[in-house]
Amino acid sequence: MDSSSLNLDYSNYLPSADALPESLKKLSLAANGLTEIRLDHLLKLEEVDLGYNKLTSAVSVPATLTSLNLEYNKVSVAALDLPGSLVSLNLRHNGLGPSGARLLAPKLSGLSKLKFLDLAYNNLGKQGLRALLVVLPSLPSLEILSLDDDDDVHRAREDHLVDDAASACLFC
């Protein structure tokens, strides 16, 4: 087993975060019922999967992180500190709503390396979409933006809130 990777998905036993090896580069703690986690002491950590938990409070991660999966949680965007090294961010099914999208937008603006952003199934609303559209120009590396199954995305297109160029990126 690679000592730089650790998969504890669906685990009956979870060590405290302080007991995790400092050499970890990849960590998966999906589907463990976690409500909070601090990983900022793992300075070599690059990829973290915390999907399908019950995270609501701040998630502390190191500045070295390139991939963060928080799908199917209820993470508080206000308390979310996103490192500038992120290349992939998955916030699918987090119940962000328009207010969460408005809080998230300024946090995204510093992520110049971000290539993948999944905000699907968050009921972002028109106000949330507008906030995200404003920040898109500050994400030069963004290749994929997923907003699947948000009725307001389709209404935004119909109401001409986005032009064809933005539409090509947003609705792919």
Automatic annotation (TrEMBL):
GO cellular component, one term: cytoplasm
UniProt xrefs under SMART domains: LRR_RI (SM00368)
InterPro entries noted in UniProt: Leu-rich_rpt, LRR_dom_sf
The keyword Magnesium appears for this protein: no
Gene3D superfamilies per the UniProt record, alphabetical: Ribonuclease Inhibitor
A matching Pfam family: LRR_6
Superkingdom assignment: Eukaryota
UniProt keyword list: Leucine-rich repeat, Repeat
PANTHER family: NISCHARIN RELATED
Protein name in the entry: Uncharacterized protein
Annotated source species: Chrysophaeum taylorii
